[in-house]
Design a protein that fits this description.
- There is one protein chain.
- The protein has eleven helices and no strands.
- It has one domain (2-265).
- The chain has 266 residues and is mainly α.
- Helix 4 runs parallel beside helix 9.
- It is globular, with a radius of gyration of 18 Å.
- The longest helix is centred in the middle third of the chain and has 33 residues, at 99-131.
- The chain has helices at 2-20, 24-34, 39-63, 69-91, 99-131, 136-144, 146-164, 170-179, 185-209, 215-235, 241-265.
């Protein structure tokens, strides 16, 4: 029964990913918490789940020529060392054995869910303003320091993704679409997905080595999600995107408020 439930959960999240392009860490980690898994197990398992599910997308984008490997390298230059440092800092103390560790992870998850929901609302406007160089002074600064900002963005992602499993998708894509306003959307998204694979894999390995990944759970989630992602992708052009995005925003914001505020009061 439990195995069937996990496969169904993987299928549901995979279908959402295929339809909207959003939903990996944003939906899977809260779902695993709902199933009663501790936050480190939910996040660690989801990170490796994301690495596997995003690998296929990254390969497809690479074959289509939609990956800018310069962007990927700059992001990884910031994110990979940061993810390792975060795990190193956690592992060198007894912090993992305290209730505060789980509270840190759930609060980080809540904050990133709220930020992601806001980004989903604003990303169209952010992209348009960036293409029109508005505001002019800010976009001039972005243009002059694009490489540095990309590395710094990688550092932010290294922290956020390692502590919450959220950030390597919609959040990262929206910021990159602003930094690289003159680059095609599909190329920026392809680069974001390609970078997410090593980041989520390295961050997930840190949890695996600490004993916080449930491999049986991971396998059952993948069994359900991989075919569902393909199905969702095929149906994505036939469903009302704005309605789905609106529903997703409401869900993410509500979950974010719960894990940031109410969960810490219980």
């Amino acid at each position: 029964m439990e195995l069937t439930l996990h496969i169904a959960a993987g299928a549901a999240v995979g279908f959402a990913i295929g339809l909207t392009g959003v939903g990996g860490g944003s939906l899977m980690t809260p779902l695993l918490l709902l199933f009663g898994y501790p936050a480190p197990v939910a996040i660690g398992t989801d990170l490796l789940y994301a690495a596997v599910t995003k690998a296929g997308g990254a390969l497809s984008h690479h074959r289509a020529g939609n990956v800018d490997w310069v962007i990927v390298r700059l992001l990884a230059l910031g994110s990979i060392p940061t993810a390792l440092l975060v795990h190193g800092a956690i592992n060198q103390t007894t912090f993992q054995q305290t209730p505060e560790f789980e509270q840190l992870l759930t609060s980080s998850l809540g904050i990133m869910l709220i930020i992601t929901s806001i980004i989903l609302i604003l990303r169209g406007k952010l992209r348009r303003n960036a293409r029109e160089s508005k505001p002019e002074r800010l976009m001039g600064f972005v243009s002059r320091h694009r490489s540095q900002l990309t590395v710094e963005m990688g550092i932010v992602l290294g922290v956020c993704v390692t502590l919450s499993s959220v950030g390597a998708g919609a959040f990262a894509a929206a910021i990159l679409l602003t930094i690289y306003a003159k680059t095609s959307t599909v190329r920026v998204i392809g680069s974001d997905i390609a970078h997410a694979v090593p980041l989520t894999f390295i961050a997930g390995l840190g949890y695996l080595f600490s004993g916080y990944v449930d491999l049986t759970l991971l396998a059952s989630l993948l069994i359900g999600s991989l075919p569902a992602i393909a199905l969702g992708s095929r149906l994505s052009s036939r469903v009302p995107e704005k309605a789905l995005q609106g529903l997703l925003i409401v869900i993410l914001f509500g979950l974010g408020v719960y894990y940031t505020v109410f969960n810490n009061l219980l």
